[in-house]
Amino acid sequence: MTSLPTDYSYLYGKPLSRATIRTSPEDFCVTEKLGFEPEGEGEHVFLYIRKRGENTDWVARQLANFAQVSPRDVSYAGKKDRHAVTEQWFCVKFPMRRSLTWSLFGGDSVEVLQAVRHPRKLRLGTLQGNRFGLRLRNVTDPDDLAKRLAMVRQGVPNYFGEQRFGFDYGNLDKGIALMRGEFKERQRHKKGLYISAVRSWLFNQLLSARIGQNMWQTLQPGDAMMLAGSQSCFVADNPEAETDRLLQADIHLTGPMWGRGELMSQGPSRDWELAQLSDWIEIRQGLEALGLKQERRALRLMPVDLQATAESDDTWWLEFDLPSGAFATSVLREIALIESAS
Q: Would you name the residues annotated as active-site residues?
């Protein structure tokens, strides 16, 4: 376990109920929403694949072997949980002159549901979002859980979830050690994973401070805001005029994804952000030295089309949509104290 603080603030107070997830892969289902339809022609084959209990990178490597192409010619829009049943798109650069029966790929745990050509490569992050289906077992306080379901429809903290940080926050610790020169990683994708964990942890710290200081829905002069459903940001010069839009979820407060350059926030808001992160100057400087640029991320996450069904007294089935880059565990965190059986 890392020595860095990870006890983040709850928006609606600490849940009273406990619950277990991932008792079986079918208890955690993810369906990827690409946001566009492959065109039907081109040098790239888009494969819609259902996998059960398998790692996304492992499936990509098996696809490269099956198609007899370089692993660099296989891509995907986003990594999906291993301990789950997931449906997601993979992409294989595959010449038009070649043909392959893609349905033969896989086995008991992997199945090709669709294969269609497209002129452009599928790149990481090129997806609209995901639909989650989650089963909560061993629910100890269903009344509290039901109350919280109504609350989370109004939004939850957009924390980076446990998957980003690895087992016992190992990715975070390796990222810190890497920036200090105490650890080396030759594999580029692993290095990126570790540094991303550090950057995400710093964001979580500021988000937790905003909640802890009762500033969740309080605008400061100079706050950087994000339009809902986009990455477009602007500075709130007149907080009173923008408060209604914030309460209606038309816009969201943002926090910094730390890097080189000036903070987008201004005036009192910038001063407040710097004060919250003043204890982590070494980490901030390390991220800047790596060449990362200042970016913004919404502090609030809105679960879309949240549905809940009580299958029994202690078992609930939840479904909701989240945009790309959001974590289902951040929604569950406000509903119950979650333990993963996996």
A: 81
3 pLDDT exceeds 80?
A: yes
Nearest alpha carbon to residue 316 among 143, 195, 127: 143
What are the CA-CA distances from residue 143 to residues 18, 61, 149, 257, 287 (Å)?
12, 45, 10, 37, 44
Q: Which amino acid is at 103?
A: S
So where are the chain's domains? 36-118, 156-301
The reply to whether 156-301 shares the fold of 36-118 is no
> Tell me: the pLDDT tens digits for 109-139?
999 999 999 999 999 989 999 999 999 999 9
Q: What is the architecture of the domain spanning 36-118? A: 2-Layer Sandwich (3.30)
Place of tokens 């650069």: 93
Please enumerate in sequence order all residues whose Cβ is within 8 A of that of 141, keeping only pairs 6 or more positions apart, or say none. Answer: 16, 17, 18, 336
Whether the CA torsion 107, 109, 115, 118 is positive or negative: it is negative
Question: For residue 270, what are the CA distances in angstroms to 26, 274, 299?
Answer: 45, 6, 15
Question: Quick check: pTM over 0.85?
Answer: yes
* SS3 track for 271-319: HHHHHHCHHHHHHHHHHHHCCCECEEEECEECCEEEEEEEEECCEEEEE
Residue type, 334: E
CATH class of 156-301: alpha beta
Helix 281-289 and helix 170-179: axis angle, to 10°?
70
Res. 91: pLDDT tops 80: yes
CA distance 300 to 268: 21
Query: Could you tell me if 159 and 330 are in contact, meaning their C-beta atoms sit under 8 angstroms apart?
Result: yes
23: left (phi over 0), alpha (psi -120 to 50) or beta: alpha
